[in-house]
Amino acid sequence: MALIKTILVPLKRVVDANVRVRVKPDGSGMALEGVKMSINPFDEIALEEALRIRERGEAEEIVVASIGGQVCTQQLRGGLAMGADRAILVETGQDLEPLTVARTLLALVQREESQLVIMGKQAIDGDNNQTGQMLAALWGRPQATFASHLRFKGSAATAMREVDAGLEVIEVDLPAVVTTDLRLNEPRYTKLPDILKAKKKPLETVTLSDLDVEPETQFRVLGIEPPAQRPRGVRVSSVEELVQALREKELI
Amino acid sequence: MARVLIVAEHDGRTLNASTAKCVSCARTFETSAIDIAVLAGDGAAVAAQAAALAGVTGVIQVDHPANESALAAVAAPQISELAGGYTHVFGPSTTFGKDLMPRVAALLGVGQLSDIMSAEGAWRFRRPFYAGNAILTVEAPQDRPVVATVRTASYQAAEPMGDAPISERAVDAELPSHTRFVEIRSDSGGGRPDLQTASRVVSGGRGVGSKENFAIIYRLADALGAAVGASRAAVDSGFVGNDMQVGQTGKIIAPQLYIAVGISGAIQHLTGIKDAGVIVAINTDAEAPLFEVADIGLVADLFTAVPELTEALGS
User: What pLDDT score does B187 carry?
Assistant: First the structure.
């Protein structure tokens, strides 16, 4: 029997990384109408890692989960096409704060009896970088955040973490939460037959109340504005002029 | 009034400048206490440095063998225990703080704010999201502690001119053994200034072409007494280590002078440098997006321009 029965991989639906999003002119939010949506890139890396673990025979099953509206089934189907076995949509129309997301994921972990959660270190919309750590805390289990390498031995995982000082290696006992950094792997492309096959894979819909999760909003949004723009600079045409410009600014 | 507890980041010997920046953030609103918690194997030296920061009212030194290496799973229960009596618990928005503070918040049963760039009073904060394409103003409730990370590029370090009392505290919390430190590998630096605190930084991108070619970046940096950084593309290509990456998922820095060589300027990179004093771009591609934010742009072949610049600075 494989070391890990079920790996849970949460997939967040976010604005595609190549889209340059802007604040709406009235400051009421981001201009997201008609914008391309994708799986959060860090979550895609998480799913790729889970697939590789299963391909090595170290896990039996991969469940992908998303929290949001019915539109999130697009990303879940994308995850199934990549190779996940089944999907769960936690359907809600509310925008949830990371703590509520972590509570929801904990409920899924317990429901699915998962021994490993692999997820992105941050979503590229909220840029919070919180949910994995919160889930690990609520679960009372280890966290290996910002992982760029992951291997299993016995009932423990060894993770290499990308930290400010370099690369840190830690060992964590399973069950555990791993959050992914960009260099963990390069996600595979899905092929057309896989997309067709994914349509037949199980996709279950549950609600927050099915999971006994009460959403909680703590932070009140008072405004959203575009960042301050840097004034337009100058072009110089030679190194000599560059040195002169730096001297004028008393930088050298 | 607000009482702020700041979690010290350190390597066992030296207090990281990120801690002094958290102090500066706390000093922008009214407080009755700004205390620093130092968790270490033997924290005496770090506690003394923390006690010297201007504005600090006290240092809590928690020595324990389990605190020899900074592990979030081990530190979080201790910090959440110390948090009683404080209205705010701050950590730096470095990999240390990002790893730890959400875990602290969840143990306290509260949400967390990431990357505070300014405070408008003790319960109102501004933070960037969408890779810095938007700034959010949020209000935190006053009936529970504000757990937050402070965006270090937004603050100057508090000066070492104070003399706060240091108290020692024993660990009461039960510490887990499910997470174990193995080792840390660091491959950069080479005696150069620290990338996160340096006043001058020279970064190389994909255009530099190879690990060997990065030598011209190091030579320019050394002529300027600058730290060396890199774009994600340069790190992904294996030119330099991950600890040199500047950008949304790397380091967010605010040097007085930033020289970007052979970096096109993806939005994710610009996020990491927008607080720099003067940005210089050197690139062969006149259409590179970095030129849009650069204060001084030079369209030139970097393999001739950079050595020429290095020589001009040396003379």
Answer: 66
Strands in B93-226 per DSSP E: 112-116, 118-119, 124-129, 134-139, 146-150, 166-168, 179-185, 200-204
Q: What is the pLDDT of residues B16-52, one digit of tens each?
A: 999 999 999 999 999 999 999 999 999 999 999 999 9
B16/B19 Cα distance (integer angstroms): 6
Interface test with A, best of B298, B299, B301 (most A CBs within 10 A): B298
The reply to whether residue A167 touches residue B138, judged by beta carbons under 8 angstroms, is: no
Q: Which domain holds residue B140?
A: 2-168
Same domain, B37 and B147: yes
Q: Catalogue the E-assigned strands of B58-123.
A: 58-63, 88-92, 112-116, 118-119
Q: Is residue B229 one of the residues assigned to a domain? A: yes
Residues B105 and B10 in one domain: yes
Query: What domains can be seen in chain A, in order of their start residue?
Result: 4-222 (3.40.50.620)
* B181 to chain A: closest CA residue: A170
Compare CB distances from A173 to B102, B178, B274 and report the shortest one's residue: B178
Q: Which residues of A touch B292 (CB under 8 A)?
A: 232
DSSP-derived letter for residue B173 is S
ipTM: 0.96
- From the list B181, B188, B282, the residue facing A170 with the nearest CB is B181
